Amino acid sequence: MSQAVLENEAAPSARMDLLRFATAGSVDDGKSTLIGRLLYDTKTIFEDQLEAVETASASRGDEYTNLALLTDGLRAEREQGITIDVAYRYFATPKRKFIIADTPGHIQYTRNMVTGASTADLALILVDARKGLVEQSRRHAFLTSLLRVPHLVLCINKMDLVDWDKSVYDKIADEFTSFAAKLEIGDLTIIPVSALNGDNIASRSENSPWYEGPSLLHHLEHVHIASDRNLVDVRFPVQYVIRPQSTTVTDYRGYAGQVASGVLKPGDEVMVLPSGMTSTIASIDTADGPVDEAFPPMSVTVRLNDEIDISRGDMICRPHNAPAVAQDIEAMVCWMDETAPLRVGAKYAIKHTTRSARTVVRGLQYRLDVNTLHRDDKAGELQLNEIGRVRLRTTVPLLADEYRRNRTTGGFILIDESTNRTVGAGMIIEAQ
Amino acid sequence: MSQTKPYRASHLDALEAESIFVMREVMAEFERPVLLFSGGKDSIVMLRLAEKAFAPARIPFPVMHVDTGHNFPEVLDYRDQRVAGLGLNLVVASVQEAIDSGHVRELPDGTRNRIQTPVLLAAVEKYRFDALFGGARRDEEKARAKERMFSFRDEFGQWDPKNQRPELWALYNGRHHPGESIRVFPLSNWTELDVWHYIAKERIPLPSIYYAHDREVVERDGMFYAVNEFIRLRDGETSEVRRVRYRTVGDASQTAAVLSEADTVEKVIDEVAATRITERGATRGDDKVSEAAMEDRKREGYF
C-alpha cells in the first residue's frame, strides 16, 4: 500500500463528455457483478477498496469476493445483505466520464428507479438468460419510457450458463423488442454478456461469434447523446438575480440560471414569463467573460436591454416559442412517501423549475399497474411506489412544457408541507 | 439551425455548471448559508465555484473553518490570504478553545477528528446557519456514495441514511424547520481526478504541501507522517527525509503524505490517473478505524 504509482495507461483527459446512466435489476441478475466488472475493467476499483471488500466478504463467510459490497456501503445494508438506496458510482475511459445511478431491484424499486432515471441519458436493464423476461424487466422498461430516458440497453446476462446458445438470446430479444414497441423507447440495444467472466463487457467475446453488435463498454462510450438535448425551445428559468452592492460595479442587473433547453445569443429577442414582457439579450455573462451563445447545461447570467421586473421563478423564452402559463396541470405522478398516500383534495407544496407554489389534487383519473399497464379508474389514492394520472390546480401559474418535449420544464416534485418530505414526482402531460 | 455546431460541453464544463446551479439554488432559498473552508483542495475548488456563481458580485456568504488546532502552517497562511483576497468573513470554530473552555474533552489518543463535530454544531447554532456547503465527493467513501446533494440534518445535526429525500432531476428540496439544516455538497459528482483537472484548467493556486517537496517523515502502517509538533517519534521509530506530497489535507496529526515526484499540477494529474489506491485509503488514519467509520461520524453530525 505504500507505492502510489504502479502503471500509467491512456489517462482520462480533461475534455471528455459526460454520460449518466441508471442500472436496474436485482442481486440475482448479476447487476452488482456487472458494475463491479465495469469498474474493474476500467481500472476504477482501487486496491484498498478491493482489499476492504475481500476482508468483508471473508468475515461474512462468502465463498467468493462479493462485489456487491463495493456498492453496499451502509452498516444496515451489510448486516442485512440488502441495498437501501440509490448509490452513485463513477468511472471514466479516455472518451467519457460515466456516472452510474445504481438502484436496488427489490424494496421501493419504483421510487429509487424513478429517482435514478430522472437524470439518466441511458438505462441499463439486466435479465438472467436462464429465466428470460420477468415481471421486473417489464416494469423497468416501462419506467425507462415513463421517465423518457433516451437510450435503453438490455443486457442478457449469464449467457455462459446457457452455453452461449443464440436461440436463447433471440427468443428473449424478440420478446423484449415486441414489449418495448408498446412503450415509447427511442433507442434499444440488446447485448449478450457474462458479467462474471467479462464476456462482451469491455471487449467483444469470442464466445458469441453470432453476435455482431458492440461490447457494453464500447456502446456506452459511443452511443450518440448529443442529439438528446433540446436545442430548439429556448427555456431559461431565472434562478437568482445578481445585483452587486459595490462601488466598482454599478448598475449591474443580471439574471442567473442554467439553460434548460435551446440556444441563447446576444441580440436575440426574448419574452419573459409570466409577465409576457419582451426585450433583447444585451449580453450573456460568465465569470470568465461574456460568451457568444449559451446552451444546455451551461450556467450563465443573462442581461437584457430593457428594465423589466424579473425575479426568481420567472422564465426567459422566445416570443413565438413559449411554455404554457398554466394553473391546471395533468401529470403522471409517482408517489414516494411511505407515511401517507396521495389523496384527492390534499394540498402539497410543488417545486417546478425554479418556481415554488402550492397545489391541490383535483382528481385521480386512474392508477396504473406498472406490471400489466392496466388502468384502474376506481382508485381513490396512490400508495408508496404507485403511479397514476393526476389533475392538479396550482396557486400561481407554472411555466410548463409537456415532459415528453422537455424533461427540465416538464418535471416537478411534490412536498408535504408539514414534514417537508419529498413525497411525489410528476411528469406533465398537459398544462393549461 | 442551418450551421452545424456541436454545442458540446466537456464533462468538466457540465460538472462546473451543475455545482454553480446548486450554489445559486442555495443562495436563493436559504437565509444563512456558510461555506466550510479548510484550505484543502476540495474546499478551494468549491470557493472558486462560489466566486464564479455570483460574479461580478462578491461571494454572498461567509466561510467557516472548523480548526482542530493541528494545522499545517502553509495551509493556514493560504486560508487567510484567500479569504482576505476575496473580502470574505471568516468564522473560525476552534476545537482548542472548546477544549480549553470545557465544552469538549480531548480524547485519550489525542485525535481531534471526532470532537470536531460538537464544535461544528455549536457554531451552526450560534450563527444560526441553515445551509452548510461541504466539499465532500461521492467517490471518496462508500457512505458518501449514498448521500444526497442536499443532505437534510435534524436539530442535532444528525444524518439518517434510511430517511433521505429522493432527489429528482435538478429539483432540490431544501425545506426545513427552524433549527434544522441542510448540508450541501456541490462537488458530489466530481472525482479526485476531476478536481485536479479543474485546478489545472482554472490555474488555481494551492498550498505548497500539495506538490512534491522534501520532508522529514516517519513510516507507520505503510503511511508517511510528517514529524512535527503533533507527530513525535515513538520508541524504535526512525525518521527520514523523503520526497512527498499530500493528497488530502486534514488534521495534521491524522493526515499522511504519499511518496511523489510530482511538483507540478500536470505531474500530479498523471499520478492521480495512474494511482491504484483511493486518496482517503492512502492518507487518512481516521478512516481506518472500522468498515463504517465515516457513516458513524456522519450520523453524529460530521460533514
UniProtKB/TrEMBL annotation, chain A:
SUPFAM superfamilies: EF-Tu/eEF-1alpha/eIF2-gamma C-terminal domain, P-loop containing nucleoside triphosphate hydrolases, Translation proteins. The keyword ATP-binding applies. GO terms for molecular function: sulfate adenylyltransferase (ATP) activity. The keyword NADP does not apply. It is an enzyme of class 2 (transferase). Its EC number is 2.7.7.4. Pathway: Sulfur metabolism; hydrogen sulfide biosynthesis; sulfite from sulfate: step 1/3. It comes from the Bacteria. NCBIfam families: CysN, PRK05124.1. With CysD forms the ATP sulfurylase (ATPS) that catalyzes the adenylation of sulfate producing adenosine 5'-phosphosulfate (APS) and diphosphate, the first enzymatic step in sulfur assimilation pathway. APS synthesis involves the formation of a high-energy phosphoric-sulfuric acid anhydride bond driven by GTP hydrolysis by CysN coupled to ATP hydrolysis by CysD. This is Sulfate adenylyltransferase subunit 1.
UniProtKB/TrEMBL annotation, chain B:
Its EC number is 2.7.7.4. Residues 282-303 are annotated as: Disordered. Pfam families: PAPS_reduct. The keyword Transferase applies. It is an enzyme of class 2 (transferase). SUPFAM superfamilies: Adenine nucleotide alpha hydrolases-like. Keywords: ATP-binding, Nucleotide-binding, Nucleotidyltransferase, Transferase. It comes from the Bacteria. GO terms for molecular function: sulfate adenylyltransferase (ATP) activity. The keyword Transmembrane helix does not apply. Residues 33-256 form the Phosphoadenosine phosphosulphate reductase domain. InterPro entries: PAPS_reduct_dom (IPR002500), Rossmann-like_a/b/a_fold (IPR014729), SO4_adenylTrfase_ssu (IPR011784), Sulfate_adenylyltrnsfr_sub2 (IPR050128). Belongs to the PAPS reductase family. CysD subfamily. PANTHER family: SULFATE ADENYLYLTRANSFERASE SUBUNIT 2. This is Sulfate adenylyltransferase subunit 2.
